[in-house]
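User: Fold both of these, please.

Assistant: Here is the first one.
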Amino acid sequence: MKNIFSPLVLVIFTTGAAFTGCESSAKKVENAEQDVAAAHAKLDQARIDSAAEYEKAKIEWAGRIASNEKALAEFRVKIAADKKETRIKNEVRLNELQKRNDAMKIKMHEYKHGEKTMWNDFKMSFTMIAVEFDRDMDAFEKSIADFGKK
């Protein structure tokens, strides 16, 4: 009796586990559809968040570019009274800074909002360009101020 009982318990346990562990095909499809719907909802929300972040950054960058243009115009007025040689040298630097500022403006306006990874790459690239531009503007301003002290 002991020999029959052990295999019988094993068969009943295995059969029960198999039936309780299996889902119907309809249930699997329903779960998959819910997962797909949830993934689409997350993707849509990510696109909305990314677009809002882009618009916010675009407004900030447009203000920064306008501020750069104002500073460049002020520098042009400051250097107008310089000696010819110094003025020409500073005008060359100002023209280069103006071109870079214009390039940032074009880059910002030509960006076509797309996937989040593209936006992150663009944001990082644009921020690096803007930081370099600010550093060069500060250096130029310092050189003008230093020249004025001499």
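And the second sequence with its predicted structure:
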Amino acid sequence: MQATFVAEQLNTLGVTFSLGIAIGLCYDALNVLLIFIRLSKTAQFVIDLLFCLVMTALVFMVLLVNSWGVVRAYTFLAMGAGGLCYYLFCHRWCQSLMVRVVKFIIAAARFTAKPFIWGLQRLRRLLRGVFALFCALGQFGRRCWQKIKLKFHSKKQE
């Protein structure tokens, strides 16, 4: 019975340590996204608040599943130790990797979108030319129509 209790506590300790690492990783991912997406201070505050609320809900759901919702001091100490270990040993490497991945995704999206953008620019130029042609023809047509109207109108008056 005692061995089972200690094993459950060690399991909870390991899960909360891993959860601390996962929260640190999620926070870095959020920071990397905020580097590439410029937001106002208010929007950034709202996103940080939502992040804290989501992570709090995640922590309590994990604690509920893992230890039947029993909240003990060592669970939060283990979570803090996991976050600290992530920050000390993995933070720089993971953040630089995420930045490189996001830059690669942006470059791939630009490379993929380039033919479509080129085609849309050509189509826009073509449509501008057609529109200008119709405008010119419309003005020419109106002048011709006025001349024709004047000829017929002047013949009727004679």
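Residues 73-157 form the longest helix (85 residues).
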